[in-house]
Every structure is written in structure tokens, then in C-alpha cells.
Amino acid sequence: MRLLIIDDDPAMREALERGLREEMFLVEGVRDGAAAEERLRHTVYDVIVLDVVLPGQDGFTICRRLRSRGTDTPILLLTGRVAPADRVHGLNAGGDDYLAKPFVFDELVARIRALSRRGRTRQLSTELAYGDVRLDQRDHVARVNGAVVTMTATEFRLLEYLMLRAEALVTREELAQHVFGSGDSESNVINVYIGNLRRKLGPAGVIVRTIRSAGYALRAEVG
């Protein structure tokens, strides 16, 4: 998954970026709303983490502005303002979730993953499942028929993204953005990682289908 962090405090922003990268997210950080809007013109993110207390435009204003411009990416607001009125204000501004400072990092990670799964039947669990494949987002473990499959961070992100979109078409452009952090959808790197993933999943790898001239999908074997 690809995240955008908006926080003007360099130390906090860098700490979040470092910690979230260790959780196998693709992460980019900016200091204000203008920089965020520029990134969003060219890049699609899975979740935006937005600090409320910012110089110039505050997070509520930025959130409202992003929504007015058609950004529908889930937004998690971070703030030291804990009054119910502030939470209501944030949600009314277009935020999807609200986390008060100081927060436990594990809760931040859990809320980000919950936002990425919102509206899916899997949203109540940190485990994704399809066929014989299980993927634990919290512990970063993939299993096939109960056996652990060793994966690199990129392989894990690839499987996670396909499982979050199970049975739906996932284009090469989406994989380039959300898994590999680039805009090069024609890169042979995608083919290599898809091949590696199928090989590591063994017989279960048949669920990773190539949709000719379109992309990929996790689909159970027919018949």
C-alpha cells in the first residue's frame, strides 16, 4: 500500500516514514497542503495520514479542500485536539478516521490497514484469505495450506494488494503505483515479481491470473 504523510514537523514526519516503511508500506511525506495537492495530481495513494495542526491551512481545511477537488482517498487525521467537537469537525470536513496524539504506533498501523480494507468483508481481521493462501498483515506472514512462505517486502506488498482486490482486475498501472512506487507500468520488473510470487506460492500460484492486455487478478481455478 502507498501512503502520503502530511506533517510539518520534520522529526515526526521522518519517524512516521521510517516506522511505516518497516511495516512494508510505500511512504512519502510532505510538510503542507500545497505539497500534498501537487503529489496527488500525479500519484494515487491508498491512505493519507494528515496532521491537523499545520501552519497556514490546518488539517481540517486541507481535508475539506482535497474532498472538494475530488480526492476520495481515505484520510486519517492525527491531532492533539481530543474534544468531541474537534472529532466531529474533522469527520465533517471529510476525514475517515481520527487518532489523538500521543498515540501508540501499532494502533496507527492498525487504523491505516482498516481504512484500506473499509467496505470489504475482510475488514474485521488483519488476516486476508483467498483459496489456500493466508496473509497476516500485522505479522507480515504469508502461508499456503498453513506452511509459511518466505517473501521479500515487495513480494509481500504485491500479494497483499492482489488479495485486497481479490477477483477484481488489477492493472499494471495500479501495481506500478501501489506496489513498486513508480509510474513505469511497462517495466519488466512487474513480470519478474509476478513470476516469483507464483513460484513461491507453489500449486496455489495458479490463482494469480494474467488478464491479457489488461493486468492481473486473483481468481480461483475454474472447474
Which helices and strands appear, and what pairs or packs with what?
Layout: E1 2-6, H1 10-22, E2 26-30, H2 33-42, E3 47-51, H3 59-68, E4 75-79, H4 84-92, E5 97-100, H5 105-117, E6 127-130, E7 133-136, E8 141-144, E9 147-149, H6 153-164, E10 170-171, H7 172-178, H8 188-201, E11 208-211, E12 215-218
Parallel strand pairs: 1-2, 1-3, 3-4, 4-5
Antiparallel strand pairs: 6-7, 7-8, 8-9, 10-12, 11-12
Helix pairs in contact: 6-8
Biggest sheet, in brief? Answer: 5 strands, parallel
Mean pLDDT: 89
Strand order of the largest sheet: 2-1-3-4-5
Radius of gyration: 18 Å
Helical proportion, percent range = 25-40%
The CATH topology label of the largest domain is Rossmann fold
**CATH class identity of the largest domain:** Alpha Beta
The structure class reads alpha/beta
Task: Explain what you see.
The protein has 223 residues and is an alpha/beta fold. Helix 3 links the parallel strand 3 and strand 4 (75-79). The model is unreliable at 119-124 (pLDDT under 50). Helix content is 39%, strand content 22%. The strands form three sheets. A five-stranded parallel β-sheet has the order 2-1-3-4-5, with helices on both faces. Strands 6-7-8-9 form a four-stranded antiparallel β-sheet, covered by helices on one side. It folds into two domains: 2-117, 3-Layer(aba) Sandwich (Rossmann fold); 127-218, Winged helix-like DNA-binding domain superfamily/Winged helix DNA-binding domain (Arc Repressor Mutant, subunit A), CATH 1.10.10.10. The longest helix has 14 residues, at 188-201. It is globular. The two termini are 32 Å apart.
